[in-house]
Amino acid sequence: MITMIWSQLRRRLWRSSALFAAILLATTGFTVLTGTVNTSRLQVTGEVDANFRGAYDILVRPKGARTAVENERGTVAPNQLSGTNGGITTAQYRAIQAVQGVEVAAPIATLGSTLVSSTAQVDVTDLVDRSKTRQLIRLDPVFLSDRGLSRGVRGSAYVYITRRPIIGLDTGRSVGNTSYYTDGTIAQDTEYCDTGVLEVQEDGARKRVCGASLSSWQEDYAGLRTPQFDVYSLLPDGRFLDGAAAGDMQYATDRIVVNVWWLSIVGLAAVDPAAEARLLGLDQALVSGRYLRQDETGDRARKVRLPVLTAALPQVDETLRVTLSTVDDDLVRAMPGTRSDVVHAWLDKTSLIPAGTRTFDTRAPQPDAVFEQPTLSVSFVLRSGLPRYDTAADGTLRPVVSAEAPGTWMANSPVMGGGATPSLVFDTAFRDVKVVNAEPFMAADPVGVFDPAKLQGFSRLSRVPLETYRSPEAEGADARSRELLGERPLAPSSNPAGYLISAPQLITTLAAVPGLIGAKAADQAISAVRVRVADVRTLDELTRERIRRIAEEISTTTGLDVDITVGSSLQPQQVALAAGTLGRPELRLTELWSRKGVAVAIMEAIDRKSVLLFGLILVVCVLFLANATTAAVRDRRRELAVLACVGWPRYRLAALVTGEVAVVGLAAGLVSAGLAVPLSRVVDVPAGTSQALLAVPLALLLAVVAAVVPAVQAARAHPGTALAPLVSPVRRARSTRTGHTVLSAALRNTRRRPGRTLLAAVAVALGVGAFTTLLTLTWVFHGNVTGTLLGDAVSLRVRAVDTVAVAATLVLAVLALADVLYLNVRERSAELATLQAAGWGDGALTRLIAYEGVLIGAAGALAGAGVGLFFVDRFAAAVPATAVAVTAAAALAGVVLSGLAAVLPALSVRRLRLSTLLAQE
What we know:
By secondary structure, the protein is α+β, with helices and mostly antiparallel strands. The protein folds into four domains: 173 residues, no CATH class; 255 residues, no CATH class; 175 residues, no CATH class; 193 residues, no CATH class. It is elongated.
């Protein structure tokens, strides 16, 4: 049998060489290219281990705190703590601490927001025209947020300067509705002139400057229009006498400085100082002052209940812009003695002379500079709910606008109104806000200042929400939105009902919470517990299981919502934000949410892409070998039948065919083993001797697997086959005047050997599928498709060896198709020669074979394109329109390659001669 195997290999040298080349290509390519998998595994594992861990490993929230969108998308929203106002009891927190394996359990109580007052000091001295007897300077403050797109207007401020003497109130004598002045003048207060200094006129008369009083407390509850009115007298020595001071308390000053009240709503949160220091190193982030003490509750003797750390930098996007102007002189001359309501009506209509602007950026909370107090004045606590979302057909999130009018919640506030309202609270509301029943006025003691940038560093790729220290941001998602935002991210304002809520700028202790909201409420004030698990260094399977077990135990013990955040990474979410009532147009934003389990998914699927591509080489090679071996068996059916006639048993016939292919496979494996090491050095891929030697059994296995079906066919050889003709009966050819007939004949021919046609189509489909996947990854996703920062950094990158693998797959697929067509030509050579004798020209016969190749290739290309889109969808979780276009291009390329594969078989038809075929018969 060995002699016969050797003889057959030499007699069919072209066929043996083709088998040898195919096995050599597949085996060498697989051996060398798979060497990159181990290297890639080490690189990816190292990068994941360096970046998988954020500030905490497990996030525990109150039962039901996880939103529907979070559940649906496997994410944690970046602003999730801003609307989670308690829900975890002290007992549940202690239970979390007691779970074995918990290294740190750091609680945080999002208490809400509080009103903090400050001032912007506007110096208008340089605008004073000292030659005029009377003049009026107007200040129009506008609060800007949303990168200047939203404008909150406040009431104008006025400064009245006169060269005439002014007389102040005698506060010791003034009672009821009667005002006494230091010169003995008595005046009755009215609704439109209840206070105000006296101005001595040129004729000696004394007239009230009634514009110095408010027009009416009821005129505007929100305080957006009621003006501020200051009166100064220009003294002969060039200084100014402040008319706001009463009687003998009046003083002269060199400068006129207007204090524009700036009321901000800032976040307030409570932490466990010791746990926070262990989790984030908050104690090491101080830039001044001292750290919070564990059981610190404040100094009740001074009525200071809140020891706080304040943020070094503001956490909101707010700017105050004050426009300065001077009022028409004719109106100013008529002001003394005129009722304030009349003055205000005049001021709304008068012409103004621009005098410049002053701009002030928001500041971090600080001790009151106006009253020079060491404490920070704060008032009541507001609590904001979570935003709700509608989801568009394309997956875009649309925050739902609150049904209540903006600012409605102020009706329950104890100190809002009368000019004390932050104007930005009237912007569009996306959250429900309520006022907590607390003392309307409190004092906080700022013991230290911290810089969030100095907190313990964690990987940028695996950030988890740290709303206590970092305000959320959202980038513009399209060119229009980015242009409107000035290429800057949208940041929160101090509106507690806004979509984005700022990070707390005041951090106090959990021990101080009972004195703020009461002991009963304080017992369940914790909004979240951030858990770090002990001894987590790598993200191996054992570590993942240990973290999962701890999370499960926390959930079972406490009944709270538990999210495993280790291995999370930020994932962009598209948000369509409705237009605001203060001028901001609708924006399309990209917001970064934490996608859970990204690192785990990467670890579980390290380089499956490359393994798949390399495996396709072997699959297509097996198809090629199976087709070639099957063709050899069909070509030798008479020979096999004769052997059956002389008594060869079935197993010997099967062994003969298997042995021939195995010898070729063994030879190819030995050559491949010799080439593997030097080739791996050329492409800079490590492949050792042991890995190279694997080429021998691999090549042998490929050959044997490919020979299984042909060997079974050989074993079924019947002695009667020796007498059967090789040439199939030829049907009468139809007219070939049109290309349609040739195409119809090609369609019929592809169905005559369905198994062989299917084999070639599958080979093309695999090649085109691999090509589609690689092309989409490269052009559409730029090499990465996970959609998260960590995934973009370490997963699914297209490498040069992937391109080589796809190229090898396509080459084998084209060879498989060409081999099928060539075998069809050989088996139907008599039929084709007869058609030629019946009048078919060489062109018609050439087109016939070419059409067969294109039809088989088109079927395979379409199937391969579908397979490619499926894998892209699995990798990317979505298939963009550009990916479909790339897939169509890849399918077209597959059809073109199939047409090229048919060229040589089609040209071989021209060499057919009827006389030669008849002589062979």
